[in-house]
UniProtKB/TrEMBL annotation:
SUPFAM superfamilies: Rhomboid-like, UBA-like. It comes from Coemansia thaxteri. GO terms for cellular component: membrane. It is a multi-pass membrane protein. Its main location: membrane. It is found in: Membrane. CDD domains: CUE (cd14279). GO terms for molecular function: ubiquitin binding. Residues 177-220 form the CUE domain. The chain crosses the membrane at residues 44-66, 73-90, 110-139. This is CUE domain-containing protein.
Length: 220
């Protein structure tokens, strides 16, 4: 990658270049919303910043080593960082046998959409996608304490105020998770983070039985 192209790389990652890519990315991000619920909004925000910075650095390094002239436009790094977290965090609940030969889990639509997003221009998108996956793996391995890092308090205050203004007239539609539910499930999974349990309960509509089943599946 030429040095004059490095300065163009960051702004080029803010938006996709075609309508088809934008539609596929939006469909993929909608399916990946479970990642934010499981991590929690504040931890997810820290993950996006950390994985984005690490992923962009990896993409630039690989681009320079391979002497790439350019890369695809679009936030592929962040999207595929979230795809990896989806793979790690969200357990497979249902298995379907296709043609009596292959067992396909209920997460296959996420991977199919991700493949459809990068396949048309694999040479231009592959480096960014793999950089996103690698950055997410670095985060998951807690290199340099990335999992414990959080955005500054002032950033949280600004985000909280903005959210309160935007939702002041909109009733909350998320189920209320009681402390008793969290403590009960926490007793069954003493090593599990309570915020993770709370997020899992929200994701399954406050159904404790289903949350326990999914946590058991993810622990195996």
């Amino acid at each position: 990658m030429k040095l004059q192209n490095l300065g163009q790389m960051m702004p080029s990652q803010l938006g996709f270049s075609t309508l088809a890519e934008t539609v596929l990315a939006l469909a993929l991000l909608y399916q990946l919303r479970a990642v934010e619920r499981l991590l929690g909004s504040w931890r997810f925000a820290a993950f996006v910043v950390a994985a984005g910075m690490v992923g962009q650095a990896l993409a630039v390094a690989v681009g320079m080593v391979l002497r790439l002239e350019s890369v695809a436009m679009g936030p592929y790094v962040l999207v595929f960082a979230c795809v990896y977290q989806f793979y790690v965090l969200v357990p497979t609940v249902l298995q379907t046998r296709v043609l009596g030969v292959v067992d396909v889990g209920d997460k296959w639509t996420v991977y199919a959409t991700a493949a459809a997003l990068v396949a048309p221009r694999l040479a231009a998108t592959g480096v960014l996608a793999m950089a996103g996956v690698a950055a997410s793996m670095v985060y998951d391995a807690n290199v340099a304490g990335l999992k414990q890092w959080r955005l500054p308090r002032w950033a949280k205050a600004i985000a909280t105020n903005a959210r309160n203004v935007g939702t002041s007239r909109v009733p909350a539609d998320e189920p209320v998770v009681s402390a008793e539910q969290v403590e009960l499930i926490s007793a069954m999974f003493p090593d599990m983070d309570r915020e993770h349990i709370r997020s899992m309960l929200r994701m399954v509509g406050n159904d404790s039985n289903r949350a326990v089943a999914m946590l058991l599946d993810s622990a195996t």
